[in-house]
Amino acid sequence: MIATTFGVGQVVYSILWFFLFFIEIWLMVSVFIDIFRSHDLKGWAKALWVVVVLVLPLVGILAYFIVRGDEMRAHQIQAQQHQEQSLRDYLRRVGGPSGSSAEELSRLAELKRDGVISEDEFQQLKSRVMRQASDTSSK
Q1: HEC states along the chain?
Q2: What's the pLDDT tens digit per position in 13-59?
Q3: Cβ–Cβ < 8 Å for 108, 129
Q4: From residue 75, how far is each of 29, 53, 58 by CA, in Å?
């Protein structure tokens, strides 16, 4: 029923306004994230920015970009670097030894020499290290 009352121009006009509204909400969320991420803003300044953005959305978002645009970009870069460092730390902690295959073979030889592992275990672990080395070199 609605399709018969709406013309093509009205549908395109409605889609345009929907996307503009979506972009406004996205920018508002981005501004809120930066407001609460900012350590250089004190509590009342954060509250004032939130009120300005909520009461006058377009003006508030534009004013925030003009006044604090450089800090916003710096906060994004800092958050990205922190996230990358956290990922590296996690991978280093979970990934185990990240040495070369020669280092792993020398560790295995030391364990065998010290009597920690038997000859059979040494051969199994040695073949596993060699397989992993060949798999990584073929990629």
Answers
A1: CHHHHCCHHHHHHHHHHHHHHHHHHHHHHHHHHHHHHCCCCCHHHHHHHHHHHHHCHHHHHHHHHHHHHHHHHHHHHHHHHHHHHHHHHHHHHHHCCCCCHHHHHHHHHHHHHCCCCCHHHHHHHHHHHHHHHHHHHHC
A2: 999 999 999 999 999 999 999 999 888 889 999 999 999 999 999 99
A3: yes
A4: 15, 19, 22
Does pTM surpass 0.90? Answer: no
Report how far residue 30's alpha carbon sits from residue 27's, in angstroms, rounded to the nearest whole number: 5
Instruction: Please say whether the beta carbons of 122 and 112 come within 8 A.
Output: yes
Read off the tokens for 106.
């020398």
Residues, the chain: 139
Rounded Cα distance, 19 and 95, in Å: 43
Q: Where are the domains of the chain?
A: 1-69, 100-139
Phi, psi of 51 (to 5 degrees): -65, -45
Who contacts 61 (Cβ-Cβ below 8 Å, separation ≥6)? 24, 27, 28, 31, 53
Q: Which amino acid is at 29?
A: V
